[in-house]
Specification:
This protein is α/β, with parallel strands linked by helices. The chain is about 35% helix and about 25% strand. Helix 3 packs parallel to helix 5 and helix 5 runs parallel beside helix 6. It has a single domain, classed as Rossmann fold.
């Protein structure tokens, strides 16, 4: 069996309020295998976003490790974490966060430009991924000229353009109608499988979660089989 794309061990995440210390993750463990789609479910406030943000190296938990491709990202300094995240991790939010002044092609190419690739190479990769996701005819459209589902597919292309080891998605279909939600999930699943990327998808949609390879849930700050 291949090694995990991501191995999460002992994540602890605490938040201090005026009244108390709240612990949303209490030693969470999870492995994601290459090409595997995993649904992450749990009630609001259970820590799904905290787990995703820690796994994406976007924030540092109070304790634990996140090994991506064998490297513990949490043991790196901020610069090292940023470099590892750009190289190995794609993130899809509930809201697409596309830059309104850039067309679809340049929104997708932007992460590769930031990573230092040439404009020609970055745009070629963006063109490839947008075409794979059925947006070959929308390359020069601004976000405001795209439907909600199209905007989210552009966001998926942006997450995958760097050929990451893992894609983390936080309610990626949460603001879409059911039919569009299914279409966007199908696009995300097909793209991740084609790329061989592991995917962890937080969702309140249990029917959607049930279409993934397996489902885990957050209970009392720990990850358990659903």
């Amino acid at each position: 069996m291949s090694d995990p794309a991501v191995s999460i061990r002992g994540l602890v995440r605490q938040y201090q309020t005026d009244a108390e210390l709240i612990e949303v993750l209490s030693g969470a463990d999870l492995d994601l295998m290459p090409g595997e789609l995993v649904g992450l479910v749990g009630p609001s406030g259970s820590g799904k976003s905290s787990l995703l943000h820690a796994a994406a190296l976007l924030e540092k938990p109070n304790a634990g490790s996140v090994h991506v491709g064998g490297i513990d990202g949490l043991a790196l300094n901020e610069r090292g974490r940023t470099a590892l995240r750009r190289r190995e991790i794609g993130f899809v939010y509930q809201f697409h966060h596309l830059l309104p002044e850039l067309d679809a092609l340049d929104n997708v190419a932007l992460p590769r430009l930031i990573a230092g690739e040439s404009k020609a190479k970055a745009r070629a990769k963006a063109h490839d991924w947008l075409t794979r996701l059925g947006l070959g005819g929308r390359l020069t459209h601004l976000p405001a000229q795209l439907s909600g589902g199209e905007q989210q597919r552009v966001a998926i292309a942006r997450a995958l353009v760097g050929e990451p080891r893992v894609v983390l998605a936080d309610e990626p279909t949460g603001n879409l109608d059911p039919a569009t939600s299914d279409q966007v999930f199908d696009a995300l699943a097909a793209a991740c499988r084609e790329a061989g990327a592991a995917a962890l998808v937080a969702t309140h949609n249990l029917a959607l979660a049930g279409r993934m390879d397996r489902v885990v849930t957050l209970e009392n700050g720990r990850v358990v089989a659903a």
